[in-house]
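Hi V.,

You were right to ask for the full record rather than a summary. Here it is.
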Amino acid sequence: PLVCVGDDRERPRLEEYANKLRAPVEFKGRVSLQDLIKLYQKCSFYITASKWEGFGLPVIEAGACGKPVIVPRNTAHVELVRDHRTGFIFNDSSGLMSSARFLIGAPQCYRQEIGINAREHIKKKFNLDKTAKDYIDVYKDLVS
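Predicted structure:
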């Protein structure tokens, strides 16, 4: 089943549409950090279809949990994903659907391999210790 996390003004319309299609979609709304981590760990892959996303921490969180991600090309997410290595970047709704269908049909070992790549990429590029050090260096430069 598809699990949707978060709330926004589109949720009622999406719930109505899922009900109309009798699609196996579970709308969780807002969840605690602990529950969010469990959802990442349990899922096969993560999708965001956001049209107006900034940096996009959920993409990093999913990758850190070893999950492939599917993201739109029109946001900052493309900076977080290596297409076909850590996830997939789509241009339109048909690209999103074909990427999702591909991952659904792929052997679990393939999804795991992409997820391992995603985790390694996130650990290397978004290391908290390195990021904190870089911020400290910037502040030191500004002060001196």
